[in-house]
Structure formats: C-alpha cells, structure tokens
Design a protein that fits this description.
Two copies of one chain form a homodimer. Chain A is α/β, with parallel strands linked by helices. The first copy, chain A, folds into two domains: about 170 residues, Rossmann fold (3-Layer(aba) Sandwich), CATH 3.40.50; about 180 residues, Dehydroquinate synthase-like - alpha domain (Dehydroquinate synthase-like, alpha domain), CATH 1.20.1090.10. Helices cover about 45% and strands about 15% of the residues of chain A. In chain A, the strands form three sheets. Chain A has a seven-stranded mixed β-sheet, with helices on both faces. In chain A, a hairpin with a 6-residue loop joins strand 1 and strand 2. Chain A is globular and about 60 Å long.
C-alpha cells in the first residue's frame, strides 16, 4: 500500500488552462483560514449547506472564512436528492439577492453532491457567473461529483437535465468529514471509487480489493489514498475532455443503468452511489455478454460491489415489462441520441468504450440482474 | 446616407475564436432553407416563439427548417417581459424532454428579446448546453439583445439576475419582421440604436438624427443601415470583452436608471427600450452635471429620444422619496458592487466610461427628470 501521510495536505491539479484549479486533500482543512487564503476576494461570501451537514461543519467554515470575507452568510437547504430541484435552487438566488450580494460574491458548497451540484449551478447562473468553491463532505462528492465542473438540477423527466459546465476555483476535501458519514453513504462513495478501476486502472482495482476492510473501517491512510487516486484519474480524464465530447463519458460507467434505477424508483429512494454500484453490475455483465471482457472479471466486480455494502440486484420497476421500463428510462439519458442508448462498457480490464448494444441482449441482462 | 441594398443579405461577424458566428441581415430570410444551410445537424429542432409572433412567422420558419431537420417542434410562450420567469423557462425544458430531444437538438429563438433571452438560457442549460440560433423579430432584439450571448431570466428582486453567457451559432435578422412591429416596439428598438451614437460613434448619431423620419416610416434601406451599423459596433465591443469584465459595460448606457424604472414599475409596464430611452436622458444629464459633457450634447440626445417616440420623463416610483427608491433599486443592479452604483456616463461625445457619482447629484438629476 502506498505510504501517504493523511495529516499532510496533498494537492491534485485539474489542468484546464485558465480554468485550472487544485483539489486539496487532507485533514482539518475546513476550519483553517489558510485553506481559503488565495481565493478571489469579495465583500461577501455565502456558504450553502444542508440541514444535516451545517450543524457539523458550518460554524468552523464560517469562522475560517471570516478571516477573508467581511460578511459570511449561511444557507442550509433541505437534505437529499429529492430536493435537487429548481425550487431549492431558487432559495440560493433569494438568499444572494436578499443579502445584496454582487458579481464578486464567492459561493462555498459545503455538503454532498446535491449541495455541490446546486451551488455550482447557482454560481454559474447568478448574475451570469460568480466564483465558487467546493467543500465536499461525502466520500462520493470528494471522489467524483465535486471535481470536474458538472453542475445542475434534476427535472421530473430526467436527472441532471438542467445545468452547466462550470469549474470551481478550488475543491477542499477534508477527510475528517468522512468519519461522521452514515455507513450507507460511505458505501455509496465506494461505488464511484471502485468505478475508476475497471475503466482506467486495474492496479487501483487490486488495491481497493486488498484494502476494502480498511476503507470500510475508515482508516485515514486508506481513505487518503483512495480519494487522491480517484481525483487523479478524474483530473486526467476531465483535462482531456472538459465538456464530455468524448472520453469523459467513460466516467459514466454504471450510470446509464443507475440513472434508470434512480428515476424509476423516484429520486432519493436509492442513493446515487447505490444505483451506480448496481448499474456497474449490469454494465459489466452486458460487457461480458457482448464478449468484450471475461465473465470472471465481471463477477469479480460484482463481488467487490457487494463487499462494499452496495446492492447488486436491481429493483423491479414494472412487474409487467421490467426491462421495457428500464429501456424507456435509459432512452431519456443525456447520452442517448435520437432514442439510441449508448452504454459505457468494459473493453478488457482497465479500458472503457462507448457503444450501443442489441436490445434483446440488454433485456436479458436486465432480467438476470433484477430481483424477482 | 450609405447605399445599402436591403434586398441583399449582408453579414456581420462576431469574432470570438471558436465561438465566432455571423449575423445575417436582409429580407425574406426566415422562410428560406438556405438561411439555415450550414448549421449543426440533428434529428430534432425546436422553435421557441411567443403567441404574438408565432402566427406571423412560425410556419415559414418550420417549413424552411424541415429541409434540414427530420422533426421540427414548435412552442409558443406567453408574450411579454412579465413572463421572463423560471416558470416560463420550465415550459421549454418540458417541451424538450417530452419530445425526447437530445444533446444535439438545435433551438431556434423566434421573437423579441424575451424569447431570445429565455431560449438562449434554455439552450445553455439543457443537458448542460445545446446549440441555438437567434431569429430576432423586433428591432430591439436585432440591434442589441440577440447579439453577444447574454441570456437569462428575471428574478422578483432584479432583472436578468439568473442567466449565462452563451453564444448562438447564428443570428438571423429578417428586416421584413420590422414591418409588422407595433409602433411602440419600433420606438423601443430605436432607443438601443440611438445608444450606440453617444457611447461609440458620433457620425452614426448624426446619421440617426438625419434619417429618423425614414426609420420611423420603416424605410427598408434606413432600417438595413441602422441594424447593420448597430451590430457592427456591438460586435466590436463584445469581441473585446465577451463576459463584461470591462469595456462591454458601456453597452449598458441608460440601463442602470432604466432597470430601476422597469423594476419599480413592475416588469412589462414599460418596454425595456422605453426605460432605456428615459434612462439615457438621466445618464446624459448626470454626465453633464458632472461636467463630463456639454449640457447642449445632453439636451440634443434628449430631443432625439423624444423624437423617436420615447418617454423622456421618468415615472414617480415613490411619492415620499422618489430618488431614494430609484437609488435602492439601482443598488440591486448587477453592475453595483458592495452597494456602490456604477454609472455608464458620457465622457465627451462618442466616448463612455464607468464611474460612481455623488449621491446628492444623482438625486437632483432624478428629481429633475421625473414627472411631478
């Protein structure tokens, strides 16, 4: 196992020219004024959090930010994917305008993926764009959603259908926050960490398998390595394809099936990471059914997903025509074009490709993966 | 007067590197398939219009676009600034998702500034960005709002507070549409044309004064020149400062006072161009009061605004403290920072600058400009 001191801060840089920024990974970061030392200055800052995270970390964030911003406002949104809506987003705009915030005001997203996606979209849109900083407090947000500039909200007809590509000025991954995470959310984050193995790095996959007990026990050294390596892979992909014209889509491994599960169950019933975990099972088995990867590799991934505490059986969304319901929902996925579903599939361990698949084969994989 | 054949199409190019695009100016453009020949291809297109414009031009636009897109959908929004809201924007997303539109779908904004701003923001945000084309059908939209990539919606606490900088792929200015424009909207468009004179081009100001009767009579040759010269000046400014970090703000001459009028009266009571016309009167007189330009130049501008059929007296927004109400509303303007109002002022004919002004002087200008 690589030796990383979790008490020293390490930086991963996302190289996007003038939009480049650093992901700081370490402990005790949220409450240190130094964490925010070289960000854009303004007379006001707004911390956007949720009702679950704010009581734990908002006060230390506010104290540290007060060293740099004369006025630091706080807004706690309701917690959960079900609130990733325009109505909730509107509360951020209301707060900004009520406080008389201006074009220089800096937004800080303190929470998980929902808070980060909504705060990022609010920053992209308020007065046509103000700076923002991600302070992800869930494992999933630290290794995936806070990095790369995807922001947005859900629409009743589809997930993340409204949003922007808008890069933060900084991502602050404070590993301390992972110690207070509910076990279900820890597992959800592991889904996105596991994802990086089959699509890009089989050595990392080996490492995750070997160190899963430490990760589940929240050993700081193991978490530090998992977050850092995940961010490195994501940074490498995003730097090559910021707006998902091609390569970046491989990061959606497991997400096409996963989005169908989330939409079909109603947003929030399954955690995003749970749906992705189960979606990876389906995508891996579809890859094997297409002869692109050994069935043994797919089943190895299924074992790891299960061991991480994630569901490996999909929900039945429609007892009459379950596979048909999955297919209909997947046709609404943003990657679909003219009704054709493009899957992220494993083309040999460590390599992902985008391609369509015969409907009959997709149906049989869904049938075999769903709880009867 | 420059000799322009209004029946031949001329192009003004906005030079923004890979986001460059052309503004086509001419007659009979909407119904010609050739107008849309080299735009991005897709299986679907959506024309967004409003209930006033759609009956006049939507069918010819649809017929012409059908030569290039297998499916062309139509959406007519309610007409007016009062509908430039999230609720109306949501109808565009609903239409896109109900029709199964995808990331390649091209949006066409057929209407005035409200339709253009909302359709542009919908294009910026749908699936984090799809291509769009502006087909402005009002004079104001042809010379100002459809050019330069400012998109957005209003918030109850301020105009255009939520939006994006997002460039269209093409702007199509069909001069025929100006023949059916209500007189009040023709005058509103003249306000933005007049604006380009004092801030950038005194020769153009002379030309407008000399040709105002032809413009009011909708002579195609005069309209063609006014639209073309306005777009050239706007293109020159936007190419230097796409995201309004500096220079571009001069295009907001008259808009700080104008936005206060619009917000104070309730959006839609005054047309945007009417508020800008009256706002230019206030800004010109404030410039003169600061000794930056002769009072005679300010009064020349007031005469021209009046001759164009625009109001030169501001409304009383609060009989108790009218100037105080204007000031409070202007502090919410996007250009304000930390509560300080920055005005676009005339620093000698043909040259605009951004600066603050003593409150007492601003108050006295407001008092002298408002109907008692």
């Amino acid at each position: 196992m690589p030796q990383i001191d979790p008490h020293s801060t390490s930086n991963v840089v996302i190289d996007l020219g003038e939009r480049s920024y650093a992901i700081a990974i370490g402990t005790g970061l949220i409450g240190q004024p130094a964490t925010y030392a070289d960000l854009p200055r303004a007379s006001q800052a707004l911390i956007v959090s949720n009702t679950a995270v704010a009581p734990l970390y908002a006060e230390q964030a506010r104290a540290a930010l007060s060293a740099h911003y004369p006025q630091v406002h706080m807004l706690a949104l309701p917690d959960g994917e079900a609130y990733k809506t325009w109505e909730t987003l509107q509360r951020i705009f209301d707060a900004l305008l009520t406080h008389g915030c201006d074009r220089k005001t800096v937004l800080f997203a303190l929470g998980g993926g929902v808070v980060g996606d909504m705060t990022g979209f609010a920053a992209a849109s308020f007065m046509r764009g103000v700076p923002f900083v991600q302070i992800p407090t869930t494992l999933l947000a630290q290794v995936d959603s806070s990095v790369g500039g995807k922001t947005g909200i859900n629409h009743p007809l589809g997930k993340n259908m409204v949003g922007a590509f808008y890069q933060p000025h900084r991502v602050v991954c404070d590993l301390d926050t992972l110690q207070t995470l509910p076990p279900r959310e820890l597992s959800a984050g592991l889904a996105e960490i596991i994802k990086y193995g089959p699509i890009a790095d089989t050595a990392f996959l080996d490492w995750i398998e070997a160190n899963l007990p430490d990760l589940l026990a929240r050993a700081p050294q193991a978490l530090a390595h998992a977050v850092r390596r995940s961010c490195e892979i994501k940074a490498w992909v995003v730097a090559q394809d910021e707006r998902e014209a091609g390569l970046r889509a491989i990061l959606n491994f497991g997400h096409t099936f996963g989005h169908a599960i989330e939409a079909g169950m109603g947003y929030g019933a399954w955690l995003h990471g749970e749906a992705v975990g189960c979606g990876m099972v389906m995508a891996a088995r579809l890859s094997a059914a297409l002869g692109m990867v050994d069935a043994a590799f797919a089943e190895r991934l299924v074992m790891l997903v299960a061991a991480a505490g994630l569901p490996v059986k999909g929900p039945v969304l429609d007892p009459g025509d379950n596979a048909g319901r999955y297919l209909a929902l997947m046709r609404l996925d943003k990657k679909a074009q003219a009704g054709a579903i493009t899957f992220v599939l494993i083309d040999g361990p460590g390599r992902a490709v985008m391609r369509e698949a015969p409907e009959a084969l997709v149906r049989s994989v869904i049938d075999s993966c769903c709880a009867g």
